Amino acid sequence: MSPSASANYGKIPSLLFLLLVACTPGPAQTVQDTAYQHTLQQLLDARVPTCSVADLKNADAPVILDSRERREYDVSHMEKATWVGYNDFDMARVKDVPKNAPIVVYCSVGYRSERITQRLRKAGYSNVRNLYGGIFEWVNTGQQVVNEHGATNRIHGYDALWSKWLTRGEVIH
Fold it and tell me: CATH number, domain at 87?
């Protein structure tokens, strides 16, 4: 083996290590409540890209999509969120959103929004993520929600089973 080939061969393990580190998913998202965290780990697909509440708060103006049912959105939603629905989701509602725009999709806890995130990615949206813990974690961390009248402390709890994960706000069913 020539001296230059030998020198390059010695770099391969280092380059392989760097490549593996760069391509390995980062630490799993977490929420404040450990029982809620366990539930989310069982419920959600770790292969779908997510963002945390902190990530969203620090993001530079992403498109925010609410994938809950209209009655849930009407009780309250994140400021600047666009309602796209879940059971009646239609790609036409996002037709004006560029395919490379940063998009964050949310629902109550992240299950429905994960499905919409997958649909958007399959349709060619390249920078779309699911809000880990959903609007429940958003509210639980003290973030504001709004309705047609402005700021509110009301939050749709989906149902009695799921609303137990809300630790703040006035739960509406």
Answer: 3.40.250.10
Domain annotation covers residue 103: yes
**pLDDT tens by residue, 65-87:** 999 999 999 999 999 999 999 99
Tell me the sheet residues that pair with 131: 51
pTM: 0.83
Q: Which residues of the chain have pLDDT under 70?
A: 1-28
Q: Assign 3-class secondary structure to 126-165.
A: CCEEEECCHHHHHHHCCCCEEECCEEECEEECCCHHHHCC
- The DSSP secondary structure of 15-82, one letter per residue, reads HHHHHHHHHS--SPP--S-HHHHHHHHHHS-TTS-EE-HHHHHHSSS-EEEE-S-HHHHHH-B-TTEE
Both structure tokens of 45 = 């697909």
The H-or-E segment that residue 145 falls in is strand 145-147
| pLDDT above 90 as % of the chain | 80
- Domain count along the chain: 1
Determine, yes or no, domain membership for 75.
Answer: yes
- d(Cα 105, Cα 82) in Å, to the nearest integer? 10
Q: Is residue 12 a part of any domain in this protein? A: no
The residue among 109, 118, 132, 100 whose CA lies nearest residue 27 is 132
What is the token pair recorded at 123? 């349709």
